[in-house]
């Protein structure tokens, strides 16, 4: 039973090296849409692991590719060396990415990808003789990992509070979401053009000639799944262009199919200058991240002084052979199994079924974007987060793994979800909501 296997903790900051203080929830195996506990219980994975196992668990082609790579080449440095797997994967990524984004800097996680993207943005301006452009602009509720740069541009205060002082010269845009007018909108709410004017307002306080980059998640993920209102990203792009500011999309969650397109950039038809990605890159099977950059960013480095590119040195495990093999195999799986085509068929039901929770107990807002969903619950007076946590526990008892950020329930299942599994997730949540006080 769940009680034997997982008393209270779904989240373990440290893995105890001697005795367990709180037992974690143990999963021994995974296949397709399910995790399997050591005692054989199957749990429907409503989170694709942690927004990463996009093509479903246990994809044989990916496992085989990792095995073969491990037998071939255990390690090679990315300093003046490389290997055919890295080159093949980079070339395939360029085809998968939006037109014009054709170079990748390999790293090992989303946090590294964000910090590296921010460094590239500053170095880009420096290489072009604009060393005064150092300021970074993030956004409220933005999540950009746990590195110092990502934390600095993050818009989630509780993640940052214990670690200050963070980077100076960082400003934040407001979240382009107004509960009063946008709650329960299906798809993208209206009003993006006006919301994006917040950037112009910010640039009246911060001289645009001092700003290096704006970084946003196209769809706010960990902060609670907020899709961009119509016209918003387009307007951010235009304002950045007007002032010579780089636009970075943090696509760690939205990349690799989550919105029904390879990246959010294609889904929304807006091309950033840099994209950070990770998670779905290797289908979660091997740690990997990447910064994808547009040709003009790459060219500025190459035309700049040699130190510019040399100072941006990589990590020991950049372009690791196992990760490149897993990444290449993931793109093969996307193509051969038509993951995006399948998802396109599932999305209307996903959105329709999610929004049928309107009117369920405690629900005050529902947002969907691609195969993402957030359900906001009214907090129980005096007990913020309790309803979210209790709903999460009841769902797990009923065999469905979801996530809650306080009183916001979050869903991000593998993209290969079947109609019956969509139904199972939302029915289970509905029943759980009916049981909590
Ligand atoms: N950026 C975004 C948008 C993310 O969602 C995450 C992880 N949830 C990160 C960065 C950090 O990625 P990682 O945990 O791989 O460092």
UniProtKB/TrEMBL annotation:
Keywords: Aminotransferase, Pyridoxal phosphate, Transferase. InterPro entries: Aminotrans_3 (IPR005814), Aminotrans_3_PPA_site (IPR049704), PyrdxlP-dep_Trfase (IPR015424), PyrdxlP-dep_Trfase_major (IPR015421), PyrdxlP-dep_Trfase_small (IPR015422). Its cofactor is pyridoxal 5'-phosphate. GO terms for molecular function: transaminase activity. It holds the Pfam family Aminotran_3. SUPFAM superfamilies: PLP-dependent transferases (SSF53383). Coiled coil: none annotated. The keyword Amino-acid biosynthesis does not apply. It comes from the Bacteria. PANTHER family: ADENOSYLMETHIONINE-8-AMINO-7-OXONONANOATE AMINOTRANSFERASE (PTHR42684), BETA-ALANINE--PYRUVATE AMINOTRANSFERASE (PTHR42684:SF1). Belongs to the class-III pyridoxal-phosphate-dependent aminotransferase family. This is Aminotransferase class III-fold pyridoxal phosphate-dependent enzyme. It comes from Bosea vestrisii.
